[in-house]
From TrEMBL, chains A, B:
InterPro entries according to UniProt: Class_I_gatase-like, DJ-1/PfpI, INH-QAR
Domain of life: Bacteria
Record organism: Streptomyces cylindrosporus
Name the record gives this protein: DJ-1/PfpI family protein
One Pfam family this sequence matches: DJ-1_PfpI
Residue ranges annotated for the DJ-1/PfpI domain, each copy included: 4-162
């Protein structure tokens, strides 16, 4: 089974690494980081680069594609080469997945029309504009399309998908291997749970978080 | 405030990226990925490389050092250059931290003598041999030393430390930004919670997980 994780300029690192550290631990599978060009691809903050091992063209038919989000996603919405690759890969994939605003790229490629899907909480409205039916759930499966909420949700998505692919034992072994027994020191992980002033602050920064504007 | 995250051959990616996506979002801070040599550093599975931007020598006095774990840690236990750097950086750091078996490197550098600390659940016994007092907690703070349990615990550690450094508001804003509202699809994240056969299976593989032996 081949997993392809897409990288592009100003992606969010944990969006890619969460699914990687779960799905990528499936025995006898291959995981490839792909991008338009091989070599280092810089993340949203610019101080971390992950290396793309193969070009999109070299990995046309992964069994599972994973599209991370990040502020750079807004520019990729007009990248015909990437959207074409997503459509081509999706045509033969077993599972087509995204984390965070990666679902906007799946939607822009025309794959989420009329489908239940999710995204970063700040991007749910925009997701609806592309024809998807946004839900507030953390991981949404509609047919072969699995979309996850913001950034850290890719870990939950990866484990859930592992369970579908290989059964509970493998998924639980991976969970135990990465000791995923979360104990957040605060209960502020969703706009409903966070203190109102924290949620308001993050809303006021949504144009930066979603990449519509760059912080000066 | 400068954060230095150490990379070395066969580190575990999420050990580094969890603290990165939490601590690294502190306003007006700088995060640098460091290694003995600059350039791509391959992880435990060999199919992902993160780029080290600076050498250890170029970042002698970070305010916070983060030492990830991974199977490659066993080799680093005998790397005098790395252990020397850890000791030097620790001499002036505000916080000295680790994720997973990264705590074994702190211990080997002589920093955890008589201190309460943690590590990956499979490495707690070994941690005790280096003079630390292992606990089963997910994040352990003893003085300026903050150690976290296996792999994914670096996210909890990063948020807890952010709270100490900058207060609850910043930590909660970061938690909301990465939408860290975990919903693991299984409850198998610790050896006590996982089904007995899953725990037994992972125990049987500990020599590979801890890097004492490479899978053939």
């Amino acid at each position: 089974m081949q997993f392809a994780i897409v990288l592009y300029d100003r992606f969010t690192a944990l969006d890619a690494v969460g699914p990687y550290e779960t799905l990528g631990r499936l025995p006898d599978s291959e995981t490839v980081f792909v991008a338009e060009h091989t070599g280092p691809v810089r993340n949203d903050s610019g101080n971390l680069a992950l290396v793309a091992e193969k070009t999109l063209a070299e990995v046309p038919h992964p069994d599972v594609l994973v599209v991370p989000g990040g502020p750079g996603q807004t520019q990729q919405m007009e990248n015909a080469a990437l959207l074409d690759w997503i459509r081509t890969a999706d045509a033969t994939s077993t599972w087509t997945t995204s984390v965070c605003t990666g679902s906007l790229l799946l939607a822009a490629a025309g794959l989420l029309e009329g489908r239940r899907a999710t995204s970063h909480w700040l991007a749910l409205e925009e997701l609806g504009k592309y024809g998807a039916e946004p839900t507030g759930e953390r991981v949404v499966t509609d047919g072969k399309y699995v979309t996850a909420a913001g950034v850290s949700s890719g870990i939950d998505m990866g484990l859930a998908l592992l369970g579908r692919i290989s059964g509970d034992f493998v998924a639980q072994a991976v969970q135990l291997g990465i000791e995923y027994d979360p104990r957040p020191p605060y209960d502020a992980g969703s706009p409903e749970k966070a203190p109102a002033d924290v949620t308001e602050f993050m809303r006021s920064r949504s144009r930066f978080i979603l990449g519509h504007e760059q912080p000066t």
